[in-house]
Structure formats: C-alpha cells, structure tokens
Design brief:
The protein is mainly alpha-helical and 724 residues long. It folds into 3 domains: 210 residues, no CATH class; 163 residues, no CATH class; 172 residues, no CATH class. Helices cover 54% and strands 2% of the residues. It is built from 35 helices and 4 strands. The protein has a two-stranded antiparallel ribbon with strand order 1-2. A two-stranded antiparallel ribbon has the order 3-4. α3 crosses α4, α6 packs antiparallel against α16 and α26 packs antiparallel against α27.
Length: 724
C-alpha cells in the first residue's frame, strides 16, 4: 500500500464500520416499530432533520450525490419545489447531457441495426457459413471480412488442437509397444484465411477505400507484419477520413499488427479528430461487440453523472436492478440491453408500475435472460407436430420467468403463491418468445407454442385467450396488495434504511393501491413522511460501488471524456454494470459493501480521480490553480507568503466537495497524513515537505496542487462521503 492509503484506510474503515451519524454527532435511537400508529410517528417527528441537513439528505437519497453548488441551488428554489420538478423529468433541461450522449450514436439504433452494423459472433458465424449476406462495400464489409478471418482462424486452431490430442494417444500406444517411438512432431501452423474477399474491401469504388497505401498480403501472419515508426507516423498524420479509410483497407493480420505496434500515446493520436461514427468504425474493425458493451456502460455512467433529471436516473438504476438482466447471458444480450435500458426501463421509471411490468415482460432481453423465449407448452401445436415427426425436442415449459415474476418482480418470496401457481403462470406465458433473436428481432407471441386450456393462478381462472392470458396475469400481479407492500419495502430500503419502519412501508403501499401503482405517488408519500427525515438515518446507508463512483465524479465536478476507467473501477469494486448473474440483482444492504478490501479499492479510485488520471483533462479544477491558491485566506505559520496551510485547504475543499462536512477525527486524520509525509507508509508524499522550504512560484504551485489532490482524494475516501 502506497501514498499513505494503508494507514488512512485503516482509520477510515474503522470509522465507516462504526455506528453512522451526522458529521458531528451520533444518531438518535431509532423509534421502535412495535407500537406503530400515532406514538410511532411522533417519535420520528421529535428527531427531524432541519435546515441544510434536510436538503443534503434529499440530495444524497434522490440523486447520485450533490455537485458543488447544488445545496445553494436547492435552497434558493425550495426543497419541495425541487422534488416535484424531479418527478417530472421531461420539464428539466438536459441539453448538456444530450451533447455528451451524442458521442454514442450506436446507442440510438434499433437492436436489429446494432446486430447488423456491429455484428455479434453469431452474426459472423452465419456470414461465414453463407446463411446471411456479407455487406457489398464500405467499412462495414471490412468489419465482416476481418471478423470472419478471426473466426476461421479460431476454428482452425480448435481443429488443430483436436487433431493433436487424437494423435498423442496413438503415439503413446506405439511407444508402449517397442519403446522406440519418437514424440509426434508439432503440427505446422494452420493455413491463413483465403484472400478471395480482400480485393472487394480495397475496391476503389468504395468511398472509404480511396487511400493509396500498400497493404500486406492477406495470407501473411500478424506476427510477420511489422510497421516502422515512419509508417506509423505517416498513418497518424492522415486526415481523419483518410485514416479511417486506410484502416478499413487493411486485412485482418495487418490491422491487428498495426494496433499492437501502437504506444498508448499513438493510440490517442489514432483516434484524435475522429467523429463519433468514425470512432465506432475503428472500434468495430477490432471487435464490434466490444463497441456495443463499452458504449452501453459508458452511456449509463454519463447519464448517472451528468443528467439534471437525477431522480429519473436513480430510479432507472433501481428498476434495472429490480428487473435484472445479466450482460453475458448470451451473445445477443448486450445488444438487447441497449433498448432495454433506453426504451423499457427509463421511460417508465416514474410512471405506472403495471406499464413497466408489461414492458419488461415483452422485452426480448428479459425473455432471453429468464429463458421464457424457449418455453413451449407440452400440448401445444408445436409440441404435437414435433411428436408426429419423431423429433426428440428438449423444449418444454420453462418456469424461470414465471418464478421470478412472482418472487422478485411482484409478490415477493412470501407473497402467497405456491409451486402450482408457478407452473400455471409458466403455462400462461408459453409462446411469449423472440423473433429471430440472433438478428435482433422483437417480441413475438407464437400461438403454436402456447399451452391451450384454462389455467388457475392464485385461485383465479385464466380462460384460454392466447397472449391476453399473460396480460391478465400481469394486471392481477401489478394490482395485488402483496405487490404493493413488496415494492414499497424495497423502495424504502433503497431510500430510507436497511430496515425501514413498517408504518412507512404500509403508508407507501396504501398510496400504491390508491394510485393504481403510480411510482411517483409512492415516492411523494415517502418524501412527505416523517420517517424519511429521521435524523438518525442521516448518512446512515453505505453507498454501493456504483453510487460511490458516480457521486465522486459529481462531487469533484469531473469532466471525464473517457468513462472506461470508471467502468473498470466498478468491476474492481465487485459491482460491474449489468454484471449480476442471478436475477436478484445487487444488494441494497450496507453490509454487502463494507470490507477492508472494498474500502482500499475505493480509496485507490478516489486518489486516482483527484489526481486527474482519467484523461486530459478529467477534472474541472475545484479552485486548485495557483490563482485560487493565492487568493486563499489561511496561511500556515512558517510557510511561504501567500501559500495556504493544509488545514485551510482541507476546510476549503471540504466545503466544496462535502457540504455536510466531515467529523473532527476524519479531518484530523487527513491533515495529519498531509503534514507528515515522512510516515513510512506515505513515501510518495515526502515531496510535499518542500512546501515549507523556499521554492520558485511555479514549483510551490505544483507542490500545493499535489497536496490539494491528495486532500481531495482523501475526502472522497472519507467515511462521511462513502455514506449517503
């Protein structure tokens, strides 16, 4: 552990694991829920948050964390008015976010277009086998040709491995007979893919193939292709459109060799000046599926960090977790997740729950994830045809979606249903499938796969009506009191506490039933309840890794152009986006995210973010420049004139990044870490000791900036910031 992180992480870990409270005091005791009713409410009303703490509590719970200046903005607008505006995201100006999202043009395509223009492995296999046509010209043809080449090489390598494995036992048997057999010779490298299709890529009629440069032979190995520094420099000096055209003309071995030769700085130069569409072309030439996954995750983080409609984004995150779909379920899932997030979850995040439930039930992403797309009734027309033709099909009723629909999406594990209900609901949803999933088709109700006859669900008969049977069951589940309580508890757990008061849950459930499942109405009830404003819950919940990373970017006013480091940081913290394999999603419980290892990962991320390591520039300075330093009031005794003390800078940055403040112990630990750079576990900070010696103005400003980056990173790693 370097940079003092081991020393400080131990202090902060102990503080984070301690009972939560405000920055200065321990929380009041939580009122007992045993009494419920009026005495229960009066106990909460006696310990209500007031003033700025009330605003900060709302900002920490209903957004991904305040940005510098948000406290003052909400104070001026009025907390109630601000909350009502958040419930109506269409009325909020999000032009800045829209400009950022324009960097991901593929995220606006249909699933079918995504799979065609950024082909999956399955699409490439079909193209290689002649089942779908290869695009006739342009960069897209180059993408297909390169990916087919890579696919065929993988197939040849597999065949070589099988042949080698089969040859070794025979050789071993011969060695056992006469003891003189030699070890089989290593097989020669597989033949390179044919260059039959290469001339079509370089056809001069192709508008993206006009650059005149010599390509390596198509049958040359990428290990044999080499580029001189002069060739690389000439390539990087090309205009953006010619640069992309030249890349598109390269055959697969040449392209792979070129990419491998580039230094990190040259990779940046390669992409410099390219339009978002051109960037997607270059990415697709290397791996089109990675383009989809990367943009899917980056677009989500961009929305979470920069959207002004924060409550909509928080609720989008909530419902994406509630209706979890695992990114790597199959080859097509990343492509379907684009529409799932954009068209299914976000537009319904604050509307009627039944509309959201209907949308997820019809979503190909959900139907594929929980295997309902393959579910077929045993007495269906399709099953009878298969039996007549002597086909031994393994398809039948799949109960996965039916079970999770009741257990996780609506009624809850104790919602009063039985295994018989699961089977009946599974029968209802037979035939709910996906049209041509490998090519991005949409929802399809296949009558031939639907189980005929009447079903009995939760004691109610469901008459045979095809697709309408499923819609009837969805309505029945969405309007159930058990669903109202299950969702209300889950929302209260997310927004209030790990063990929310039952009286609050009951009140939210009543609002759900009266409003016919209107999510905004339920949230409004929560916002107006005394339990939400209980002082003992102020900074009581530990942020999930996603909440932590996004809130850190917001608190530091980060302008991050490349969001991939944040995506990787979430993976390191154990919460990759769309990475929950089980349908339960990630836990909202604080205990799931508190461990010494997890806190060290967070500290590392915080220090890297504050040190501006996520791009150039990644941080819009929070007054860390020499101009701001010169105007700071606090000056350390013995320090050069005009230079602030560590205490003064800590207080200045604390007021900007953590307006609710930190505890005295946290503040002392941060200042001590900065003022004692010779501590054995803080070797890198010894340079900060130079602040106390006479230095040139430029060097002094540089040292102070390093100091302020350290302070900012430690503040972002503080227990107060890691709670919400």
């Amino acid at each position: 552990m370097h940079d003092g992180r081991g020393y400080l992480a131990a202090i902060l870990c102990a503080a984070l694991c301690a009972p939560p409270g405000s920055a200065q005091t321990q929380p009041a005791a939580s009122p007992s829920s045993a009494g419920q009713s009026s005495s229960h409410r009066s106990a909460y009303r006696s310990a209500q948050l007031q003033g700025d703490e009330r605003i900060l509590h709302a900002l920490n719970r209903f957004t991904f964390g305040p940005r510098p200046g948000d406290l003052e903005t909400v104070r001026a607008e009025g907390l109630n008015r601000w909350f009502e505006r958040q419930l109506h995201p269409a009325s909020i100006d999000n032009s800045e976010l829209d400009a950022r999202l324009s960097q991901f043009p593929a995220m606006q395509w249909s699933t079918e277009d995504l799979l065609y223009r950024l082909p999956s492995d399955a699409m490439i296999r079909q193209a290689a086998d002649g089942k779908i046509p290869i695009p006739k010209n342009g960069a897209l043809r180059a993408v297909y040709i390169d990916q087919i080449d890579r696919y065929e090489l993988r197939q040849q390598a597999k065949q070589q491995k099988l042949e080698t494995a089969s040859a070794e036992p025979a050789a071993s048997r011969m060695a056992g007979i006469d003891g003189m057999a030699e070890r089989p010779e290593t097989m020669s490298a597989p033949p390179e893919p044919s260059n039959d299709m290469q001339p079509a890529v370089a056809n001069q009629s192709n508008p993206v193939s006009m650059a005149s440069a010599q390509s390596a032979p198509a049958n040359s190995s990428s290990r044999e292709v080499q580029f001189t520094e002069a060739q690389i420099d000439n390539m990087l000096l090309l205009a953006p459109d010619l640069r992309v055209a030249r890349l598109a003309r390269m055959n697969q071995p040449e392209f792979d060799a070129f990419r491998r030769e580039l230094t990190p700085a040259q990779r940046i130069s390669l992409m410099a000046g390219l339009t978002p569409g051109q960037r997607e072309v270059v990415g697709a030439l290397e791996n089109p599926k990675h383009v989809v996954v990367d943009e899917l995750c980056e677009e989500r983080l961009a929305s979470d960090i920069y959207s002004n409609a924060q409550l909509q984004e928080v609720m989008t995150d909530f419902w994406l977790n509630h209706f979890n779909v695992f990114l790597h379920k199959n080859d097509e899932t990343p492509y379907y997740l684009v529409s799932y997030q954009r068209d299914t979850i976000r537009p319904h995040a604050l509307g009627k729950f039944e509309d959201l439930l209907e949308a997820t039930a019809h979503s190909p992403a959900m139907l594929l994830y929980l295997d309902n797309a393959s579910s077929m009734g045993p007495d269906s027309i399709a099953a009878e045809r298969a039996a007549r033709n002597g086909k031994n099909t393994h398809e039948g009723i799949n109960e996965n979606y039916a079970r999770e629909l009741m257990e996780l999406h609506t009624l809850g594990v104790n919602g009063g249903y039985t295994q018989k209900d699961v089977i009946q609901v599974a029968r209802v949803f037979t035939g709910w499938t996906v049209d041509r999933p490998q090519q991005g088709g949409g929802f399809l109700f296949n009558e031939n796969r639907h189980q005929p006859g009447t079903k009995l669900v939760l004691g109610k008969k469901i008459k045979e009506r095809g697709e309408r049977e499923g819609e009837q069951v969805l309505h029945m589940l969405a309007s159930s009191p058990e669903t109202a309580h299950f969702l209300s508890r889950e929302l209260a757990e997310r927004f209030v506490s790990d063990d929310p008061p039952q009286a609050l849950v009951d009140r939210m459930a009543q609002s759900y039933m009266k409003s016919e499942g209107d999510i905004s109405t339920v949230l409004r009830t929560l916002f107006r309840s005394p339990e939400f404003w209980f002082a003992g819950d102020y900074r009581a919940k530990v942020k999930t890794p996603l909440e932590y990373v996004v809130s850190a970017a917001r608190a530091s006013n980060a302008r991050i152009d490349d969001l991939q480091p944040l995506v990787r940081a979430l993976q390191g913290m154990g919460m990759p986006l769309y990475g929950s394999v089980p349908p339960t999603g990630y836990s909202w419980q604080s205990s799931a995210w508190v461990s010494s290892g997890a806190l060290v990962n967070r500290m590392n991320f915080a220090l890297a973010l504050a040190a501006n390591r996520f791009g150039e520039p990644s941080i819009e300075r929070l007054g860390l420049s020499a101009v701001a330093i010169a105007s700071t009031d606090g000056v350390a005794t013995g320090a050069p004139s005009g230079q602030p003390s560590a205490e003064a800078e800590e207080q200045r940055l604390e007021s900007l990044m953590i307006p609710g403040g930190v505890s005295l112990s946290t503040r002392s630990a941060i200042v001590d870490q900065v003022q004692n750079p010779n501590r054995p576990d803080a070797s890198q900070n010894r340079a900060l000791a130079a602040v106390a010696r006479p230095l040139s103005p430029a060097q002094a400003a540089k040292n102070l900036e390093k100091q302020d980056q350290l302070i900012a990173g430690l503040l972002l790693g503080s227990p107060e910031f890691q709670r919400r």
